[in-house]
Amino acid sequence: MVLLKIALVGTAIVALMVVAQNQRWPERARIVGVCSAIPPPHSSSDNRWYSCSEGLLSGYPSLAGDHCVATGVVQKREIWECDEALVSVPGT
Fold first, then answer.
1. How far apart are CA 61 and CA 75, in angstroms?
2. Is the pTM of this model over 0.85?
3. Which of residues 54 and 45 earns the better pLDDT score?
4. CA-CA distance, 43 to 6, in Å (whole number)?
5. Where are the domains of the chain?
6. Other beta carbons within 10 Å of 29
7. CA distance 76 to 92
8. CA–CA dist 52, 31 (Å, integer)
9. pLDDT over threshold 90, residue 1
10. Which residues are CB-neighbours of 11 under 8 A, at least 6 positions away?
């Protein structure tokens, strides 16, 4: 009987995690960091620019592995300059 209760609670937790991931609750609650595309500065080349907000648990997402360079933090958002558009942006 105890094993059944443990299995039911475990199943409920897994189901809640799946629903939360599909609905993007962690991103909307700012538990994990998210990024979004932003317009380039006027003096910019053809590079793509992204603005990332800090997550409570994960901090700022790193786009360094996607051939991007961090240019600084403005109004609590980290700005990244990338050579090309990203296929997958954290939080989208």
1. 16
2. no
3. 54
4. 59
5. 1-30, 31-85
6. 11
7. 19
8. 13
9. no
10. none
